[in-house]
Specification:
8-stranded mixed barrel; 11% strand
Length: 814
């Protein structure tokens, strides 16, 4: 038998052939020896078949091996090995409860026999069960116990690597890093460059979760240095995938796409394995940001296929492990779910297979027990798969609410029955990404359950669905948009009081989008887009506006042309002068982008800046603005006109570490003062990181201005926390200056507050002499607006700055 066991690891097919020969030899032995020999041969056959991916065929053979040892077999290593094989097969077939029971039986026998190596293997096998069920704390416990039982480089390497992956899922990153380092050391000691490279790949993925792009890059570079990318080591694909995610995280989507092309070269995305799941998710996000919607959609389909398979697998673990409570991992990519036709077909196919297999099983006679056993195993798996598929398709595992697929089904049903398309309401939790990161997955999952319960308990006739993490759907059975708007207002009222989770009181903001369409998918998509429109309009809910949505194809084309416009001179900077009230001189300007397209004419910043933010083009564009502003500042200084330049920084960039470093390097090279204008909301997503970057810029000589103060929900807490030098009153705030005494009092109190905090105040949107006089009286330090000057190209700005200040101040340039 030793030859068959040795061949098992090298070539399962050869091992199967040897074990079948061993079975023939066993039949020639005397009865007393024959049973154990036959059991051993069948056990080896089941092991070989399992390693060949034929677990369903292996199952009845392993059962036969167990039966061959008798009703009350002696507790031998062979019996424990058979239990281990049964556990491994049942795990593959999704029978996690039975698998765990057999692993435990094997462990107890190994322990009593003193087989510490096999004991360690059994503990790691049990840990894998809890990993499948997403009970990572239990998995960690078993992996640690396995490490204590037996010291063996190959076993310890697997245990440390798997332990580190489980710790990563628990966000215990420091402990995970230590385990990865131990695994790497063991691989190095064993002289296995391939294993060491794979450990480094896992480490880099953990560092990506922490947004530690420098660390991830160092780890994956080390992995590449250990193996040759000559096509013989398939795992190298995932190394390129890590590089793509690093490039994307740093805002370089073009480079990310280039790396993805290497990662997926000659790969059929329709048939990829579970190993590709996170890479498909990242690829979808990267291609979408790059504007390649065809590739993005293909990877979204693959991502959905694999996550559905994984959900079904975890679902069977959930129902099989007695008394266990599981959290199911969220899909990381916040995307709309795809068409569910494929899932519906898979569900029907699973049910058909189940019925067919049961018919076959019933039609077989008692004389075909072995074949019937195989069919029964397949039938049981088919039933489990059908149940899991049905549950994962229509019921959200985390909240128990119906899913996106269920909403599409119900929309189609209501439309068919009533002849009218009902109103769809999407309800999004504000700052859901930030809350998820701050609370951690498990607490955030309970938080969403509490939000879902409150939505479902509202006094309105709607059905509540969970569409995506942080996004819920409400289906109103009628087509009355007035009723739907009333429901949207009611939703906001439900969250006037904080949601309590684990003694934490969490204030919840909800934004709703409404839409109607005869096509269910279009209705849901438009409702989701209406949420973005509500954000832009700064209102709590909005109906989908087709005109506001625009032409997506034209928008993508616009983004592809934007950066080329900076190179061809179609994009330029205009500068609006800012008057320092105390001196009566223009000592600063604000840089504003202007795009004059050769075919489309003037394109407003309000049109292309939001698109640039959504597609990731805002970073290279802002870097161009900074470089061009610094160059223009140098030109003015050479003409004897020193000036301070204010530059708007998108909220999407304030937390970007790579942009922060690049901006700092550019600031240091400036020939005069530079001010970065940011909004309060730019700090809210990740305050700690944002404040770190603002301090970095200030240390480099830049001034920080809080822009648009007086719009939205200006927060005194953020105003006090943000390291800043200047507060900029929004034009909407200034427009109320002379409306009534209340307006003047608000501006006066804001100016006094800013001065008490050591900030200067800039009032923008000044259009009348009355406004100017009032602001001067109220203590504003700076003013800008059309009363003083419209934005000017650099050539005109030089002449403007040379004109007498008295004339300039009185002029109206409109």
């Amino acid at each position: 038998m030793s030859a068959s066991q040795a061949a098992m690891m090298r070539d399962p097919t050869a091992a199967l052939s040897l074990s079948e020969r061993a079975e023939d030899l066993a039949r020639r032995l005397i009865i007393n020896e024959r049973d154990e020999a036959m059991a051993t041969a069948w056990w080896l056959q089941s092991e070989a078949l399992t390693r060949m991916g034929r677990a369903e065929d292996a199952y009845p053979i392993a059962l036969a091996a167990q039966s061959r040892l008798g009703e009350t077999p002696a507790e031998t290593k062979l019996l424990a090995d058979i239990f281990t094989s049964l556990g491994r097969i049942e795990k593959v077939l999704g029978e996690h409860g039975d698998a765990l029971e057999n692993y435990q039986r094997a462990y107890e026998i190994y322990r009593d026999l003193g087989e510490s190596r096999s004991e360690s293997i059994a503990l790691q096998s049990m840990a894998s069960i809890y990993t499948d069920a997403r009970q990572y704390e239990r998995a960690v416990e078993y992996f640690q116990n396995a490490l204590e039982r037996y010291q063996d480089p190959s076993l310890d390497l697997a245990a440390h690597n798997n332990l580190a992956n489980a710790l990563t899922q628990l966000e215990r990153y420091d402990e995970a890093a230590l385990s990865f380092e131990q695994a790497r050391t063991l691989a190095n000691t064993m002289g296995s460059a391939i294993l060491e490279a794979r450990v480094l790949n896992n480490l880099s993925n953990m560092q990506l979760e922490q947004a530690d792009y420098d660390g991830a890059e160092a780890s994956i570079d080390a992995a590449f240095s250990l193996v040759e990318d000559n096509g013989t080591f398939e795992w190298v694909r995932f190394f390129w995938g890590v590089r793509a995610q690093i490039a994307f995280g740093r805002g370089d989507s073009r480079r990310a796409v280039r790396f993805l092309s290497v990662a997926f070269r000659d790969v059929d995305v329709e048939t990829t394995s579970q190993n590709y799941t996170p890479l498909h998710g990242s690829a979808a996000e990267i291609y979408a940001a790059h504007g390649d919607w065809v590739s993005a959609y293909a990877h979204l389909q693959a991502f959905k296929r694999l996550t559905d398979e994984r959900a079904a697998f975890a679902s069977s673990a959930n129902s099989a492990l007695v008394g266990a409570q599981f959290d199911f991992a969220e899909q990381e990519l916040e995307i709309q779910q795809l068409r569910t036709e494929g899932l519906e077909q898979a569900l029907e196919l699973a049910r058909a297979r189940q019925a067919r297999n049961m018919m076959i099983a019933l039609g077989l006679g008692a004389g075909c027990i072995c074949i019937a056993g195989i069919v029964f195993a397949r039938s049981r798996v088919a039933r489990a798969n059908a149940r899991a598929l049905s549950e994962s398709l229509y019921t959200d595992a985390s909240t128990g609410l119906p899913t996106h697929a269920a909403m599409l089904r119900d929309l189609a049903k209501v439309t068919a029955e009533t002849g009218e398309a009902p109103v769809v309401i999407s309800a999004q939790i504000k700052r859901s990404k930030h809350l998820s990161g701050a609370l951690g997955y498990r607490v955030y999952s309970r938080f969403e359950q509490a939000v879902a319960a409150r939505l479902a308990g509202g006094a309105y006739p709607v059905t509540v669905y969970r569409l995506l993490p942080g996004l819920f759907g409400l289906l109103q059975p009628s087509a009355d948009t007035r009723e739907a708007n009333a429901v949207a207002r009611g939703v906001a009222g439900l969250f006037e009081n904080a949601v309590t989770v684990d003694d934490l009181s969490i204030d919840v903001g909800i934004v709703c989008g409404l839409a109607r369409d005869s096509d269910p998918e279009t209705a849901v998509r438009h409702a989701h887009l209406a949420i973005d429109q509500a954000h832009h309009l700064n209102v709590p809910h909005a109906e989908f506006d087709e005109a506001l949505y625009g032409n997506p194809a034209a928008n993508l084309s616009l983004m592809s042309e934007m950066m080329r416009a900076t190179e061809k001179g179609e994009m330029s900077l205009y500068y609006q002068p800012k008057l320092k009230v105390r001196t009566g001189r223009f000592e600063a300007v604000e840089a504003l982008s202007r795009w004059f397209h050769p075919e489309r004419g003037f394109i407003s910043p309000d049109q292309f800046i939001p698109q640039a933010e959504e597609t990731g083009h805002i970073r290279p564009f802002t870097e161009w603005v900074i470089r061009q502003s610094i160059a223009d500042q140098q030109r003015l200084l050479g003409e004897g006109k020193p000036i301070s330049i204010a530059i708007n920084i998108s909220g999407a960039l304030v937390g970007d570490a790579d942009f922060a470093r690049k901006a700092r390097a550019l600031i240091v090279g400036a020939s005069g003062p530079i001010t970065f204008e940011i909004t309060e909301t730019a700090v809210m997503t990740n305050p700690e990181k944002a404040i770190e970057h603002l301090n970095l810029w200030r240390e480099s000589g830049a001034r920080i201005s809080i822009d648009d103060y007086g719009t939205g929900q200006s927060s005194l807490a953020y105003l006090q926390m943000i390291p800043s030098d200047e507060l900029k009153l929004d034009r909407q705030f200034v427009s109320n200056l002379n409306a009534n005494a209340r307006g003047r009092m608000l501006i006066k109190s804001t100016i006094d507050l800013a001065h008490n905090l050591g900030l200067e105040v800039v009032a923008e949107g000044v259009e009348t002499e009355t406004d100017f006089a009032a602001l001067k009286l109220l203590g504003s330090d700076w003013v800008q607006g059309f009363l003083l000057s419209k934005p000017l190209p650099i050539a005109d700005l030089a002449g403007f700055l040379a004109a007498p200040e008295a004339t300039i101040r009185k002029s109206r340039r409109v």
